[in-house]
Amino acid sequence: MAPTHRREPLIRLRFSAALAGTLMALISGLTLLTTQPVVAAGSAVDGSDWGSTGTLASNSAVTVRWDNAGNPLSSVVYRDSRQTVPHTGGSSYLDVVPAVNDAYDAHFGDNNGLGGMSVTVSQTQNLVDETINLSIKGVQGGTNVIGGNSASYLQIFECWGGLTAAGHPDTIATEPDPATCQVGGIGADSRGGSASLSEGRYVGKDPLVLGGDWLNYYDNAQGDLPFTSIGGDTSGSTAKRLNSYFNTTTTNELSNVVIGADGSANRPFEAQTGAEAPGLGCGVRPNIASTPTCWLVIVPRINGVMVSSGPIAPSLWAQRIQVKLGFRQAGSTCPGGRARTLIAGSEMLNDAAASWTPGVCNAHKIELGYTKLGDQVARNQFETGSNQAVLTSQPIPESTPAVHVPLALTAPVFAYSLTYQPTCVDISPAPSTDSAAQRCGYANLVALQQDWKRAGTPVRTLNLDARLVAKLLTQSYGNALITMSGMASAPWMLAQPSNIAGDPEFVRLNPQLAHESTSAGSPALKINHLVLEAVRSDAAAEVWRWILADPEARAFLNGCPDPNGHVIDPFYSTRTYAGCESEKSTLVAQAAAARASTQKSANYLDQPLTYPPDGSPYPLPTWQTYKAPNSSELPLTVVDWLPTVNSMTDSGRDVAIGYLPQNSNWCDPAIDASCGPLPGKWSDLKIRQSTGSLGLMAVTDTGTAARFQLATANLCDSAGTHCVGASAASLQKAATQFAPTGTHGLLASTGKADYAGGAYPLAIPVYAAIAPSMALVDRRAYASAFGYVLDNGQRPGFDVGNLPPGYAPLTANLQALASKALMTLSTAKTAPRPTPSASPSGVGTPAVPGTTSPTQSTSAHPSTSHDVIVTTPQLVTVSAGHESWAWYTMPLGIGIALLAGLAGPFLRHGFGWTLR
User: Fold this and answer.
1) Each residue's pLDDT tens digit, 329-364
2) Residue 506: inside a domain, yes or no?
3) What is the pLDDT of residue 807?
4) What is the pLDDT, as a whole number, of residue 831?
5) Of 138, 127, 179, whose CA–CA distance to 157 is shortest?
6) CA-to-CA dists, residue 60 to 57, 171, 774, 795, 798, angstroms
7) Does residue 119 share a domain with residue 206?
8) How far is CA 194 from CA 117, 541, 582, in A?
9) Residue 4 above 50 pLDDT?
10) Are residues 432 and 548 in the same domain?
């Protein structure tokens, strides 16, 4: 038996070259990324609970009550003599006509039988232009009529602040002044007709104005009250469309929030910043009249009470609920910044960049300028050497040296606003027997009555498969076709399902919507196509990759029918009929006959389409036109009928506010000079859908969808067996399955959908691509900025510097790539760049600078390409605390690396230190 040698306890450190390298990384601060675990979803109030339902919690949500019980001090509106009512010469709440106060107490006070009115506001701080959710409870006077108005209703709007006695902006006011409120433009949910007075800026015969400075407006003698802007200017008449600050198109007010039979309501509300509402100026902007705080104001109304007065009339203003809102500062440079680093590219990083930029400024005094560019334009600029820092979801070609740093996980989504309208709600009298209910498609009267309780409520769960999306993208629903008065339609057009709710495939995937009405006026009637961006993007490429990877969807694009015999609009078909070869001859003849029977544009070239489409993100062939007989109007084209928007941010916001773009109104210069030159143009009336009758869907990104609290479709396999929605968890699950692309060692989707495993099939990473030829000092500035992004910037939250809702923290495999990339940026030798040449795509786009090199401009230049979305750097500066790396860490790390190299021969022979 071998002898046992006992030794004193010791710690033996055996160094190797690899360990020395690791030490260098530790001292440089870069192993933060390799040792940091994947950031999991945080608490329920940090926004990490965002998902396909569109709802999320925040750490600044508040609940306020009409009776003030438990209200924060800023939301207390006294219902006694302590409330002095503005513009009344000092009158108090007790000076309101007693019958009015009594009626309000009975409908909204704590003794109303429903516990009293309360409103929960989902987010009140760190706001940008976004949607906040308002949950209302405990209101007496709800409706019992489906789709009808209620005896009690709410008017909701935004105000910027207070006024001094002289009428000037008061920056320290503790409550809003009614003159500063964006109301009277009339919201899309207006009752219309005689309600114009109660929804406008009128005081009517409110006796409280007789003693104040609004006396001349008593009985509406001088019309409606002017709006006082944040700059101190006053508007013209809003009712007469002389208000230059807001109107019915731009206002975010809700004019008629209907209360349900149970005393509740739930509504989204767009919190507008100074960019959307200059008169409000919410969110500080340098050198522009603006304010860090604004107010959400809710004025309850009662049918028959002061019907000729609007919500800012003193007696009604005295009944308000108010909530103070804090907005993120915008548009500022980095004060005291020691470096300015610019980066351009992927629009999908828009919301994350707005949060990270101020955090990077505070931590490292680096002004990180972010400019949205079309993805391919950004890559073209990088390849030609005109830009040395871009954001991309597809790798730079291997022939061009690049260091790729993964920064975020995101995805394109199909966001929608849909309010439920069951079958037969528009018939009178309402069904009252089982047989009448069965004629409406229900099993019995009880089933109908249960379903009708959902009328007017938002749909929060909706499933799509790849073939349904293909139908929406190819004008394959009847109501997506041009349908002008007197226009003749070919037989094949009349045979198309009118909208998605009338498609049996949709009903199969969404049995909960089997009774969604498809009659005229139904919200679902409007979902027959998608609101799309005009810019070629990696998001669009990912959508097509997903569609084309699905055999059923690809076959549909090729001209094959679905199981119900529904075929693609023949002008969008590839005409290959791959997937239904046995039916090809019949289908070829049918499609040819359909195209021949259709009136087409004179210059339309009838050719098959290819997918993914070449030259645009989504196909839009101008096969269909309309021209009124004997008119001077220009032909109405598909491009007018289904116009695209500038970006996915725009498409998401349009869906959130209920706006469906459509240039179907002829604008005659003889009537409106802005319609010139002759003969005129097709224009958009910009009418919004009512919040109680919404039916829109768009392709947007997860960040935009979360910001506007939009529900997004779950994506399903073709059998409908497994469906998965976009969420932080489903994006991370997909990212764990990313595989090397073969280009620069980057990771990307394999193209294989894992619905059963809960992986969202459209998840994509966004990388920063940095030229290794950049000066070392500049590369280190980027490494410092990205180091912040990959640490604090991966922590979910609403504070500046955090990862905002709509993004998922990077997974371990992506963090490992990031760690290696930051090491390369900080230490690699400068590599030569290719000689700048013409863009491979032929797009002559000026550079958007990526460094602070004196040979480069420090401002972005507009591109000649239509792919450019925004050319002004989007800079946000608000402080957020974080430790920064000391100046000496990199030199010290390099020194240790050199020592490790010198010690190599000793280390290979097992030299060790023993610590006793």
Assistant:
1) 886 678 877 788 899 999 999 999 999 999 999 999
2) yes
3) 98
4) 56
5) 179
6) 9, 22, 42, 17, 9
7) yes
8) 27, 50, 63
9) no
10) no
